[in-house]
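Subgroup meeting minutes
Present: P.N., E.W., G.H.
Scribe: E.W.

1. P.N. recapped why we're keeping a running log of single-chain structure predictions: easier to compare across weeks, and new members can see raw inputs and outputs side by side.
2. G.H. added today's entry (437 aa).
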Amino acid sequence: MRFLKCIGLSVCLVGLVVGGAGVSAGQEKAAKRPPKYTVTDLGPLSGGTFSQTTGANNFGWQSGLSTEADGTQHAVLWHDGEIINISKQTPEGTNSGAFSINDFGGVLVDGELTKKDPNNENFCAYGTGLICRAYLWLGGAMVPLPTLGGPNNLVTWINNRGLATGIAETDKREPSCPGTVSPSGTGPQILKFEGVLWGPFPGQVRAMRPLPGDSVSIASAVNDQGDVVGGSGSCADTFLPGPTVAPHAVIWENGEPSDIGNLGGTSNPDLFGISTIAIAINNNGVATGAAALPGNQTSHAFFWSKKERKMKDLGTVAGDVHTAGLGLNNLDEIVGPSFDADGNPRAYLYKDGEMNDLNALVPADSPIYMLVAFGINDRGQVVGFGVDAEGDVHGFLATPCGGEVDEMHEKAHAILSERTKQFLRDRMGIGGGTRSH
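Output recorded in log:
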């Protein structure tokens, strides 16, 4: 699931300090312990320093993005640890990224054109002022996906029926847009945008209209039954990825929007990332995302189901203050980032009613400290990005390796340098202070 996006700059993150002292042993949980995992550093393209894994299907393929030596960002796939650049069909020298992959090899890609956006909206958040376009990559062919009449669109998720979600512009000006660059790096937005559902036939696009009283919407994901989730709001409080921000979490059933509730808050444009939005939905009708708490000072991951239609607060990893649910499989296992009060993220796994630091479930000598988990497939494999021993940010694949963890211990939090946190705030839209989540 595409929730955060890296701008295509080659940055080496140095000065990572991993705290090791004063770690207390956690209480053994009565519930079944989570499985052990092995971690694979998927690495970047040759000459690049950054990679991010965004999705994983159930047949050993992962989608994502990587920088090259010139600093541009490219859509890539990984298979058996090998990286494949699939951006060759997008214009040379422009940025792109792969943000979702289904079990039949369909991959959603965002890519820039060489043509300048007439409104300089930076819809893809690359900061280049170029038009942003959405594509379906399948079998080596890159097929453009239609907009709603405006110049820009972008992707979020593809299901196994070939239905895909994203966000597209209309050709109408939206008066609620504030006329400034958003904290996520997009804008200044001029045109109205709405969530869209593409397919299943080529060229098909349907708008996912906002809730009554709202003016814009975002479609984050679609399950195999065709249920779409996302967010709704005004152009002033609804930000394009990344990360995605909205004040109202929404499900579209048969194209009709419904507010799925909240945890007491809405959003806070002044505190970047404080949001109430649904980000993922599985085939059981279970959805997750982020929901602002009362006062709109922080957000927590949530669990929501079509059966109960109530939003459950998943809390945080022990000692942290902020979480988001970014990925979800058909076993109702949820992954995402959990942040401490200083903005240091760590990947978590929510399984069997327990929130676990994913780094506590892997060997101590693992090559990556996992910062943000973006997705989890039905094999329990988790993907995202983390830091290696040199402080470079790389995509990872965490794979269950059989058995349960022998003893539950709290893992020491990786304490990021201010330079690293600034990178995450400026380039990825995450971190502490006023630019968390």
